[in-house]
């Protein structure tokens, strides 16, 4: 039934563009009237009442009114903004000095800065022509001492850094250097001049809440987060000097708690583009999918159509994906982003794609999503490359060759593999590594041996048999044993996991694979064995949380009568990401070059420019089973 509904919606959109009207919220200020607000937005007062019936009874300060943007907003003057990309070590204070505006004025037009820190690479709006009566009072005063702070002395302690001292006194490193012009390098016992600023951010160590740890050679920030069961964000907050880099011998402040089996997945690096929307122009989006409408004739009944859909797996995937696209457009509309959507049936044929490109106007298109099949996606990108129109391929694994406008939304198998190898490498200290690889995985075996030359190798025998004595001899008691299993044969996987499970009580074993292929889904492979072995693998997507994504699931279920499957979720995630990127930047390419990772229901995106052209998503999850058969994100 859901597929019939989606197909009906497709026919509706096939010839009609939608979602052209734009709206915004107006927050009523003290003394404003509905007549003044109507004049401000160049609409009638009756229009205000039509969208806000309660406003007829009167409006009060801080009330939200829905206003259709049918014309230009009328104001005595327009505030001009400069878009500023935050650089390393920049602060709100330095930006306020650079642009001669107050910190509060910067926050006023970048609301997320009231609760979040500046992030390197993010774009913020700087007001350039605020009338004096609207400017927030500047808390800083000009002169030799712009912060108006008292100069005092600080004795340098062992392991202290300039960054740590600057954070302690809430001043910049540049201020420290100006106050101490003869300072070449920090030495314990050195006396520095500092300004005694606001130190409320300093975290005090009291009682047994914290302990200290000296960083050892070869340790990484990620390995420390895993070792102590603490998020990266918390570690940086407790040790501001880490912003200058982790160094051997540093003494770190660590929460005094027992080690955790899992670190909760930290999302401090995830960029929320909903907070960066600044471009409210209507987005022109094209979706190309193989609907095979040529196989569905007008005389078909609903039962015939259902039967055709049931037998056509590609059509099922297309309709599921398309249902997610429509959900994303609805969600973007709720954020004030209007979309003009055009949909084309590629019929899974490159020739049909060329016909679509040659008989339709793509001059104003902001982005194309699809086609699904790699060959047709490359055909679309090739035909639109000269116009510079980005083509987002939802499922391609191999990229678009030298096509600069090709966006590979699915990370490649090579990136999946390398991500897990990097994860193991960063956490391999103190671990006994064992590699099991069947004959079909010889190339992967060589790659792993190159990455982990000290790993012990166990080769499956003929008939997918694992020599139990050989495997037991490769394991070590008293140390964590990390076993990397690379196999396509069900027999090798079943034999290995079964025997490793029998040894799990004696040896501390964690199982890994760089390629969780279909063989791992076989009924011959016990999920309970994988759970007991704390099975880790890289994944393009994660299992969505019914709690975290309750609103999305509920809205989808109400619309289509079923819960969304992975293709519907992928359609939503890719489309919503594209629309938010277009709304937070001038165009899609500008957004792709920004640092940071975006994340939605199941998928995350972090595009890198390819070596030969185009862009590829490199954002990967590391998933792991816990002892209760639950899948968790560990990276």
What does this structure look like?
About 35% of the residues lie in helices and about 15% in strands. The protein has 21 helices and 24 strands. The chain has a seven-stranded mixed sheet, with helices on both faces. Helix 15 links the parallel strand 14 and strand 15. Helix 2 packs across helix 3 and helix 12 runs parallel beside helix 13. The longest helix has 22 residues. The protein is globular and about 85 Å long. About 10% of the residues have low confidence.
Sequence-ordered SSE layout with sheet pairings:
Layout: H1 2-14, E1 23-27, H2 34-40, H3 45-51, E2 64-68, E3 81-85, H4 92-99, H5 103-108, E4 123-127, E5 151-155, H6 162-169, H7 173-179, E6 191-195, E7 210-214, H8 221-228, H9 232-238, E8 251-255, E9 283-289, H10 302-311, H11 313-334, E10 339-345, H12 350-359, E11 367-369, H13 374-384, E12 391-393, E13 406-408, H14 413-426, E14 432-437, H15 442-451, E15 456-458, H16 468-474, E16 481-486, H17 490-503, E17 509-512, H18 527-532, E18 536-539, H19 550-560, H20 566-584, H21 588-592, E19 598-599, E20 604-605, E21 607-609, E22 615-617, E23 621-625, E24 631-633
Helix pairs in contact: 1-11, 2-3, 11-20, 12-13
